[in-house]
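Dear colleague,

Following up on yesterday's call, I've attached the two folding results inline so they're easy to grep. Please treat them as preliminary; we haven't cross-checked anything against experimental data yet. The first protein's sequence and structure tokens come first.
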Amino acid sequence: MDKQAFIKRAIDSNAFVSTNTYATAVNPKVWDTDLRAYQEKNIVYTNHTTMFDFRMPGRDYTVTIDAAPTAAAEVAETAAVTIQPLTNRQVTFTPTEYGSAMQTTRKELARAFFPVMENMVKKLGYALALKKDSLGVSTAQSGATTALVVNNVASTAIASSDTLSLSDFTKAVRVIKNYYYKPVKAFICNSQEEQVLNITQLQKANEFGTRDAIDKGLVGQLFGLKIYVTDSIPVASNKAKMLVQGQSQTGEEAVGYAIKRDAIIERDYDPFYRAESLIAHEEYDFKVLHPNAIVTVESYAA
């Protein structure tokens, strides 16, 4: 038997090839990777939190939060240096599972003009991203120490003339600085974007000089405060609350994001109904780390 015939017999009999049942197990589809990629494209707010990795056994997780020390003091030549207390706080995260699912039929898979399963993965990725950012925003808004309203009117009396202006940003920045935090970013809804872009002092994102410096959702910068637009700022009764946030003096974000389990996608087929299902789910939690570093500014929003 020549060499080629020997190799052919080996392949014909018991070689490990891509059509084997075992091969489909060790070479799975990459839906999980695609799902996370589609989710990442749509996340804005979560990218600006302090992330805690809790991919380990356990239900609740407690973290130690940085607390700023007081300023140093003058010391006389023969006097002892005053010892100040090392103060910190603790915050407990309790991750919750969030998920979404979509279904199609085998008949539609055969008739469709586009890859239905891939399209469903994209939509599930967006659904997970929308939930995650919305939960992060609502956590920050409810945990903020300071709540301002445009033109100092009552929240119930907001009219179409009560739109965001330069003074609303400077006031929010002053409040955050008074608590000894560093103001760094603001988050607005799509309706408030037009109001902000009309502020003449705003340096628009397309004026930064390089596209490499532009983060997702970044629309401009005002006195060092980066402004992001996100779909996750809720609009109700023609009102919306802008978020202005700061960092601790050691760079810790105002909100923490604890990840328990990455987003995964699973497939199920029901032969009775000839239905293909995709189920996407993940586990995480948000908590406010520095409530004094968050200011909400409520304004008119169409």
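Below is the second protein, in the same order (sequence, then structure):
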Amino acid sequence: MTDAHVTPGEQRMASFLREHVAPVLTEGIVAALRDQPLDPAGYLAEFLGARGGGGGGGGASAGVDAMTQRRLNDECARLDAEAKSLEAQLHEARAQLGKRLPERAAAEAVRAAETASAARFHETRRLKKLIRAMKSKTGLALDPSDWLLPEGVLLVQAAPGVDGVALCERFARDFGAAFEAAPAAADAEYLGGVRQSLEALAADAQRQPLLLLHGALVHDKSASHNPPPAAISERLATLYRNVGVPVALLLLDPHAGQPFAEAAALAHAAGAAQLACHRVACGGDADEQMSNLLTTISSC
């Protein structure tokens, strides 16, 4: 029913509002009700801007997709900031362990700090995993900082036929860690330099405080492919005295079910020293090897 007082021009304006403006505003209001933003006006302005940039019939989905992407990006940024805060607290807790306290107080501080550090580490790892899952679902590229790597020296020993040096070099380059291939004479002087390298790495905010040390336990493969456990244990003890307790020992096998000759002696020495020993299957292509290595290291 047409009002006699409504002019043709006003009727055209009302028709335009019903057909072109009201649907867009309705979409924005529905999205705002769903997301409940703190700044509704700014939210609607951004929604309308994204909606207008969609063009053609895809404009509606473009607006909704843009706001969904924005919400996920904000959540990723928040989680990343929270993870960095937890990492800073972890460093602070470890710094407290270095202070000299009376014996009883020191023991209590160590236990409390270890408990707090473990809790923060697991929470940070959970947040990193959540960030990676959110980025994967939204098609965002993963950054090296999205992975939580352990801190300290990680011993690596590759089986014959596995280019452990190239694999460690690529890992260090891609994830901001450091890498060293131990010389045949990995004596106390050399290991003291390794400790200094690790301390310098820990002070560099742009790098991961992780050093991959390859071949520190078995050097001369031409002499024997099955060195006695006592010889490996002695090398490990020398490393403990000069560098500190390693994070873990990684054995790079060509196939998961076929350990190389030194593996048994290495695993035995690691077990005797209460050092975690992990096997990494390196029988696939370079990307598969890197994926297996990353998965193992990030779980240490």
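For the second protein, one point worth flagging: The chain has nine helices and five strands.

Best wishes,
A.L.
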